[in-house]
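pasting for ref
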Amino acid sequence: MAPLSRFNLAAALLLIGASRNYGWMLVDPEFRGIASKALGAFAALCLIAIIAYHCASKWVLLVSAAYGFEELQTFACSVMYWVEPWPVEVGQSICSARIGFDVGAVGIFVVGLLAYKLASVLGAK
């Protein structure tokens, strides 16, 4: 598949940005915060996909997968919370509250591991 033309890429970015920044206004006021969070995650997923597609290298794909997985969690938890809220303590993420496990601890471990591997590869060159 050919890369997006500059025009198509510009149109995609405009649509992603407009959806992210203004889409939450289409939602009932009581749900705008969670809708904004979901739209932000969805926008990030779209941008990650565009970057991964255009710069498909092993490292870009690995980092895109890790980042994308975290954004997918944010999107999914936001939508599920919007549909059927559950109790969330102050300072806790909604995903962690849902499953009873600190999801962020796993995420930061993966980020650290990827940073270490990238640093070792850069140091070896």
